[in-house]
Amino acid sequence: MCAEMNSKWGAGLLGRLVILAAIALLVAVAIPQFLRFREKEKEAEVEATFAEAQQVANQYYGRVGAWPCSASDLNSPELMVNILQRHWKLDCDCRSNTITLIYPQHGKDFYQEFNHNSGKIREGFF
Hints:
With 126 residues, this protein is of the alpha+beta class. It has one domain (2-125). The chain has helices at 2-64, 77-85, and strands at residues 89-93, 98-105, 108-115, 121-125. The longest helix is centred in the N-terminal third of the chain and has 63 residues, at 2-64.
């Protein structure tokens, strides 16, 4: 009876260990996939917001004939709410004809800057 009980207990323990190993394997695969998904989602949000900011700035230039000097010149509440909710920052510079989106990435401030004169985009960490 004691041997029978030990074999049942051993089989139960082995079964639990197999289930635990399977769960650990699933977690080891799922967490990096989830983190990559979130990173791609954030990149898409940044690109969409930056494209919208460029479009609004170009529309401002078309109406006024000059590049906006500040983000408030853009007169786009939806864009500004979107940026402020994410704790990002949007800068416009009428002297250099640039628009810059600043947002956190990997614990540092990262920027994307569009130059209206050259049509080029620069990006990097501060």
